[in-house]
# Entry
Amino acid sequence: MKSKNSKNFIYNMVGSTVNSTMSLFLLIFVTRINGISDAGIFSFAFSTSCLFQVIANYAGRAYQVTERTKNITDSDFIYNKIICCIFMILASFIFIVIKDYSFYKCCILLLLIVFKIIESFAEVLYGIIQRKDDLYKVGISLFSKGLLGIIIFLIIDIFTHNLIVCILSLIIINILLIILYDINSLKKYNYKLLPFSKSSVLKIFKCGFFTFLLTLLTQYVINVQKYSIDNYLDDKYQTIFGIIVMPAMAIILCGQFVIHPFLNKLTNYLKEKKMKQYNLTVLKLSTAILVLGIVAVFLAYIIGIPFLNILYGINLNKYRIDLAFIIIGATFFGISYILTNALIALRDTFSQVIIYIMTCIFGYLISNYLIVNYKIMGASYAYMFTMIFLSLCYIIYYLFKARRIKLDAGLE
# Structure
């Protein structure tokens, strides 16, 4: 069993790393091959598509995996996913019409949204696989999609210099792997899609609303500086900030692959009412992110900018301190991500929504002010301050929550 857990952890970590860092490599390719202006459009469109992806994900895989009753089936989550993907398409069309971007920028954004819809559908399949305790299969799927996507995108961009064709290739790769690997994995469990249950699907919408809202606010908080840059600065600034904020995604990713293998264990602790072990696990995971973040800040300050200069082929020397501040902010966000999932497993989402609403307001105000006055430096400072504010709110609330549960004799 221990060997299975290690396999799940390692494969998921590798797969999640490759898939999540794909955007980093794609931005490198676009910056070097297509130029700094196209890179700015691509960076903003990718971030915006991630925001819309929240609609398609709705309650999310963490909610699906930690579902402790038999009232809602995996089939219900699949039907819910299909409906949410349709809503995502409609919302994105409305956004594009309102913003009135150029035709080229609209095409890039729309294609990336389609790409994210396909990714989101795969997530519900991953939830089924993970509940079978075969998380390593999810890792293999993510690794394959990420690696093939990076290689084929690069080859096509070298020969065509056409972002539209490149993104279309990503869409085709993901569709093929869903059919050939993800769905095939479900067949090995003899999984059969149950009939549509209106009441169960509506229950997911109802029970998962605050989780959805929480995730939507999370994406906004992560990218609020990019939206301010889009409003006030040129595309070239979007590229520069997109480059120096990209390493922060590695810390955020660490929070994801650290917590995901423990979701089943946390769920079991709740079933067995072992709250001491539950809180101890959350503390250990948060500490791991903190230690990793401290090391990352040091490395980012010493070798981060020279490394980015080589990768992207542009001079970023004056942004050394900015990168360090961004990594500090990402570390605080990583801790928040651990606490987010711990509270979701406890089905405590409303309080988190309040925390994120406060953070969104704080982030919006400080980002607009600092970016208008200090441009990229202001964006970096705003990122760090926003994440520190978020993390402090989470730590204070989780300590309050843990104390309240401890006083509940039924959960001791």
